[in-house]
Structures are given as C-alpha cells and as structure tokens.
C-alpha cells in the first residue's frame, strides 16, 4: 500500500524518479481517455518534501510538466501543511512558483500540522482537505463536529473550498452536507482503482469534467 512504499521511496530518494515516472503515466492515461472522447477533471497529485526541497529536483519536476504539457486544467497539487508552510518562507518558494504557473494547490491532511490563519492567507490555496482523523465518526462526536464546522467556516471565509477525507459512514456524509462541505472522498464513495476502472467511471458519467467556476473533483 502507499503507506508502506512511499516512506521507503522518500527515505531512499527514489520518490523523485517515481514522481517523474508518474507524470509520464498520467500523460498517457489522459491522452488515451481523450482519444475516446472522455473528459476528466484535474487530477490531484501529492507532492513530497523530497521532491520540493532541492532546486535541482524542483527544476526537473517543472521541466517534466512542461515537456508533457500537463497544464493547470489537467493537474493540481496537494501538499501537507508542514511542507507548505516551510516552503513559503523561502525566497525560491516552490509553492508560489506552481501558483504563478496557474496550478491549483490544496492543503492535504488539514488539521494535523501547524496551521495558522496568517499562513493560510499567504498561501492562497484553492482548497483544504480535512484529515480523516477529524472526519470519521464526526456525526457521533461533538468535539469533532465542532472542529470540522469551524474549519469549513474559516475556509469559506477565505474563499477556499473544503474536501472531507475518509468519509465512510452515511451519518458523517449527511453531517458534512449540512455543514456546507464542498466535496468528500473516502471508501464510502469509491476505493482506489486502476486506470481501466477510472475509464469506466468516466464513460459512465460518474466522474465528469468541471467548469471553471466549480472546484476540481478528487
């Protein structure tokens, strides 16, 4: 599972090559779906600290995006809170570079790092993704429900959309809808699937492209 191999890839430095190879595979998948007349919403790509911390790694990543012509309409990027907030204090911030190129950014696993309103304002991300830790079972947990409600209100006040991660229970889904949560993801909707099954979802209209006014699907 990703929880097993990604830490190994990061500690060994292989995550950099893995990320570049993944972009190539994504380009091939998108081209294949396009050839069949299937539109796809922007694909969310997780970035690791190892991919962002060295100038040469950042440059290779940007060159690969350009070479493959993966534009802002096709991909967006997810970063953890700690990675995002450490990066924006650098003069050559990778976060701001990606934003300057028009790519959408999301703060992943929101609530588990060291968020501050000042950093959120500086980041100007398009969305936050509330960590499963706060989402799972929130309908039956007053503390979790109040925390998530607060996160949703703050994000919306800052013109960001909100994604709830790890939604598995109908009661949690109903509570999130009542809060005004914009998007949800989790095993309650769909487990991770290979590209062939993604193609079937696209063909069946279960996943669709979004208009510029709508948030991207996850």
Helix and strand arrangement:
Elements: H1 2-12, H2 14-35, E1 43-46, H3 49-52, H4 55-68, E2 75-80, H5 81-87, H6 94-100, E3 105-110, H7 117-123, E4 127-130, H8 132-135, H9 142-157, E5 161-164, H10 170-179, E6 183-184, H11 195-203
Parallel strand pairs: 1-2, 2-3, 3-4, 4-5, 5-6
Feature tags:
218 residues; alpha/beta; TIM Barrel; 2 domains; 6 strands; 51% helix; globular; disordered C terminus
Commentary on this structure:
The protein has helices at 2-12, 14-35, 49-52, 55-68, 81-87, 94-100, 117-123, 132-135, 142-157, 170-179, 195-203, and strands at 43-46, 75-80, 105-110, 127-130, 161-164, 183-184. Helix 1 crosses helix 2 (14-35) and helix 2 (14-35) packs parallel to helix 4 (55-68). Helix 7 links the parallel strand 3 (105-110) and strand 4 (127-130). With 218 residues, the chain is an alpha/beta fold. It is built from 11 helices and 6 strands. Strands 1-2-3-4-5-6 form a 6-stranded parallel beta sheet. The protein has 2 domains: 1-116, EAL domain (TIM Barrel); 126-202, no CATH class.
């Amino acid at each position: 599972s990703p929880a097993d191999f990604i830490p190994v890839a990061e500690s060994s430095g292989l995550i950099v090559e893995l990320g570049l190879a993944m972009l190539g595979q994504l380009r091939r998948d998108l081209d294949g779906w396009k050839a069949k007349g299937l539109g796809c919403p922007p694909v969310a790509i997780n970035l690791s600290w190892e991919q962002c911390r060295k100038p040469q790694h950042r440059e290779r990543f940007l060159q690969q995006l350009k070479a493959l012509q993966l534009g802002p309409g096709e991909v967006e990027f997810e970063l953890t809170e700690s990675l995002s907030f450490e990066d924006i204090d650098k003069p050559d911030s990778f976060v701001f570079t990606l934003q300057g190129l028009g790519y959408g950014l999301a703060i992943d696993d929101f609530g588990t790092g060291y968020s501050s309103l000042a950093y959120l304002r500086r980041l100007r991300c398009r969305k936050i993704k509330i960590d499963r830790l706060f989402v799972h079972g929130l309908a039956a947990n007053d503390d979790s429900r109040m925390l998530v409600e607060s996160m949703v209100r703050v994000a919306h006040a800052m013109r960001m959309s909100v994604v709830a991660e790890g939604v598995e229970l109908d009661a949690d889904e109903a509570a999130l809808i009542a809060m005004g949560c914009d998007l949800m993801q989790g095993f309650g909707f769909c487990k991770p699937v290979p590209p062939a099954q993604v193609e079937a979802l696209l063909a069946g209209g279960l996943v669709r492209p979004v208009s510029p006014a709508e948030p991207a699907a996850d």
